[in-house]
């Protein structure tokens, strides 16, 4: 019997592994959420597989997405990153990760939890959809619009409502695996 996956997944083994084991699985670690949010911003205008294939390069180039380190990046470091063929060499996108790190640090400086902040947009638990076709999956929702506005208020960028919704899907805030997909049940918490 053939395994059914969401039809956005190609035959690329890396993409299949990501779909089957990562996409839609709830993530609660603040720094992991920060990293995933930054990576989703890098996707703007590109396919996710492009960023997925460069993820390890991003982790190396951006100090494993440690906000305190990234926030110290200066113009010389930006020029070094612009010369790095392992990442998307877009000055605005590079600056966005630095800017987002500063926003993260400012938000968490007085003990606020970044994970709780992000998960608050879905009431603290995954929203489980029951889509049978990719045409039913929205590009953005009122929740992703609210998250986008709140993040921008904190100084983040490359966090529009569509990027925020892709992020919410990726980190399991919403389960948008199709109901007949092999990963759907695992992302429902066994429901």
TrEMBL record:
**Gene Ontology molecular function:** DNA-3-methyladenine glycosylase activity; metal ion binding
What's the top EC group for this one?
hydrolase
> What InterPro entries does its record include?
Adenine_glyco, DNA-3mA_glycosylase, DNA_glycosylase, Tag
Q: Which Pfam families match?
A: Adenine_glyco (PF03352)
Gene Ontology terms: biological process: base-excision repair
TM stretches of this protein: none
The positions annotated for binding Zn(2+) are 6, 19, 177, 181
| E.C. number | 3.2.2.20
Name the reaction it catalyses: Hydrolysis of alkylated DNA, releasing 3-methyladenine
Keyword Zinc annotated: yes
Report keywords, A-Z. DNA damage, DNA repair, Hydrolase, Metal-binding, Zinc
User: Magnesium: present as a keyword of the record?
Assistant: no
SUPFAM superfamilies, A to Z = DNA-glycosylase
Q: Which residues form the signal peptide?
A: none
Q: What does this protein do?
A: Hydrolysis of the deoxyribose N-glycosidic bond to excise 3-methyladenine from the damaged DNA polymer formed by alkylation lesions.
This one is known as: DNA-3-methyladenine glycosylase I
List the source organism.
Shewanella decolorationis
């Amino acid at each position: 019997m053939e395994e059914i996956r969401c039809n956005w997944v190609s035959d690329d083994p890396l993409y299949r592994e990501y779909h089957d084991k990562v996409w839609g699985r709830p993530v609660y670690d603040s720094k992991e959420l920060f990293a995933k949010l930054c990576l989703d911003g890098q996707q703007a205008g590109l396919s996710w597989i492009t960023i997925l294939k460069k993820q390890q390069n991003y982790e190396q180039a951006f100090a494993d997405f440690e906000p305190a380190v990234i926030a110290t990046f200066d113009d010389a470091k930006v020029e070094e990153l612009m010369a790095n063929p392992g990442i998307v060499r877009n000055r605005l996108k590079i600056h966005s990760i630095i800017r987002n790190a500063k926003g993260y640090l400012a938000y968490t400086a007085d003990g606020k939890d970044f994970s709780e902040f992000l998960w608050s947009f879905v009431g603290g638990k995954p929203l489980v959809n029951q889509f049978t076709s990719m045409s039913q999956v929205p590009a953005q929702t009122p929740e992703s619009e609210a998250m986008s506005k709140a993040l921008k208020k904190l100084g983040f960028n490359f966090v529009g409502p569509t990027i925020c919704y892709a992020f919410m899907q990726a980190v399991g805030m919403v389960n948008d695996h199709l109901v007949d997909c092999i990963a759907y049940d695992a992302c429902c918490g066994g429901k």
